[in-house]
Amino acid sequence: MQTLLIQPPTLHNFLIQILKPHSLSPEAQTTLINHLIEANLCGIDSHGLQQIIGYDKSLQSGRINPKPQIKIIDERPSLIKIDADAAPGQYAAKVAMEMAIANARKTGIAVVGVTNSNHFGVAGYYTRMAAEMGMIGFATTDTNVVDLAPFGGSVAKLGNNAVSWGIPTGTNQPVIIDMAAGAVSGGKVKHFAYQGLNIPLGWGLTADGKPTNNPQEVAVNIPANYKGSGLAFISDLLCGPLLGTATAMFKNKAIHDAANGTGHLFLVMDVAAWTDIKQFEQEVQKALNSLKETPRIEAEEPIYYPGELEIITRKQRLENGIPIPMALIKTLSTHFGKNVVSEYLNIAPSE
Known about the structure:
Layout: E1 3-6, H1 8-19, H2 26-41, H3 52-61, E2 71-76, E3 79-83, H4 89-107, E4 109-117, H5 123-131, E5 135-141, E6 146-148, E7 158-159, E8 162-167, E9 175-180, H6 186-195, E10 204-205, E11 211-212, E12 220-221, H7 225-238, E13 262-270, H8 271-274, H9 277-292, H10 308-320, E14 322-325, H11 326-336, H12 338-344
Parallel strand pairs: 3-4
Antiparallel strand pairs: 1-14, 2-3, 4-13, 5-8, 5-13, 6-7, 8-9, 10-11, 10-12
Helix pairs in contact: 1-2, 2-4, 4-5, 11-12
């Protein structure tokens, strides 16, 4: 697999240039760009740069509103519901999590639901926001595309929805679990395609419902057994009917309106309202230390706590750059123009 190492500032400038024609509001653009770069830095390449082509198409089609006016449509002491006005999902979700953190500080617990949004990227980005404030965070979402078969099924009926929890540790390394309900996210299947790699059997099905190891043949994602299937269905219910819209399988994503938009749900608990936060952090650290000291099946294989690999990867990529598959560079060149990609990603013509 051929890759090109791109430094974060270079990637930042490239994203500014290709988003410029859409005239996003400064807040929405900054949030979107920072989120994509952070995804790549943490090794979550499925939700990083490769997503920008889809977002560009959504901005062109009107699915994503470049200048959203996010508004509160219901508010109670521990509950807020907002209409995202078709904002970039990363922007709507960041605003929602900030509201949840602020309200949890007052009441001990807060829930914020978001309707009329779009794909929000990395769920763990938002739970990390809560954990860094000494709070427990939860995030889930439905998706722009129903692409996950229920357990035992051969046809997509569910979103390959993300579920994330963030737990503070008293350090700058919180516990973050972030997982798709599928065996992997749809974006990871695409990233394997960009890398020219086969996928393991059990990740995806062809359009006629047959297992495949070719990522380019995947039309339906496979759930992470019955547990993933159940989690996906629950997220569809929480981010659809609970918020006043349909379950994802009944949404028409070709229609760009509030009833058919993406939904998100966030929950935040202020640890200090529930227990002594210092004691809590000490107990979490003790549990993490014990976890990592577990006798190993393979002596040379370390045991990681949730979110640790992303921390390690982020440090490495800040030092060395972000590896971008050349196949993705080629796709970006086809979509945005070879000259634009070469100039703003600092790629020599021979590359």
